[in-house]
Amino acid sequence: MTFRLTIVVDNKAADTLCAEHGYCLHLQTPEGNILFDTGQQRAFLPNMERLGLDPADISTLVLSHGHYDHTGGVVDLLKMNRNIDIYLHSAVFQPRYSLDGEAPAIVRMPFAAMEAITLHPENRIHWLSRPVAVTSFIGITGPISRTNDFEDTGGSFFLDPEGRQVDIIKDDVAMWLHTPDGLVICVGCCHSGLVNTLDYITARTGEKRIATIIGGLHLLSSSRERLAKTVAALRNFEIGKIVACHCSGEEAVNYLQEHLTTEVVWGQAGMVIEI
Fold first, then answer.
1. Does 113 fall in a domain?
2. pLDDT for 178-225, tens place per residue?
3. CB-CB contact of 188 with 38 (8 Å)
4. Is residue 9 part of a domain?
5. pLDDT per residue as tens digits for the range 117-139
6. How many domains does the chain fold into?
7. Residue 149 lies in domain
8. How far apart are the C-alpha atoms of 235 and 248, rounded to whole Å?
9. Residue 133 lies in a domain
10. Following DSSP, what letter does each residue of 246-262 receive, concatenated?
11. What is the CB neighbour count within 10 angstroms for residue 149?
12. How many C-beta neighbours within 10 Å does residue 221 have?
């Protein structure tokens, strides 16, 4: 059984590929091709073409959450593929703002992407309220329990521009693949927290070995205290490799590299991992 994971969109990119603030991962599996997020939009189709990946060949789209930098390419994808199955949480459509800057920034899913999803065949849309199996060896978490006291969403996120209603990003989901070497865990932004995500997936699968973690870790604004607690918790897992992407944060990744014996590397658009 062979899996081929290709990073299509990321903040960093190999030569000839477009980089943008966003994330998209393509998974080629024996039971169909899966797309995990779609980036903002600009880099999605050009990078797919340059990587030799055909949107029409994708059987499943999984949206990790409803931020613009993970959902913008949905419009182009659904124009080219009306037969794709979409897995997402209903909260992806919420109004969303980031108050990390001087003025509120709109970070919701673009309206065009929302419309494309609502016009997609109803029998092809799967609302995530609990863990589900996409294939015999691939699962999606659904909402992730948040049980530790040191992880948060990783930013100043709200459902209103005045900052009165905190957005806990309850639609944040992750994926896992069962492989002979253990789990491959795919995360979009990990707004539920990396440790919460690992706890949730390993408890439900019964598999303690984690071959690879790939995706955005959203540790870019984390305090040293949170990073120290994250490292201490990660040491309790048997992790082979971490491929940090998108929103992981330079300082945070450097910290993980310095304090973990696990291999920690940066991902970029064009990176291919075969398992």
1. yes
2. 999 999 999 999 999 999 999 999 999 999 999 999 999 999 999 999
3. no
4. yes
5. 999 999 999 999 999 999 999 99
6. 1
7. 4-270
8. 18
9. yes
10. TTS-HHHHHHHHHH-SS
11. 7
12. 15
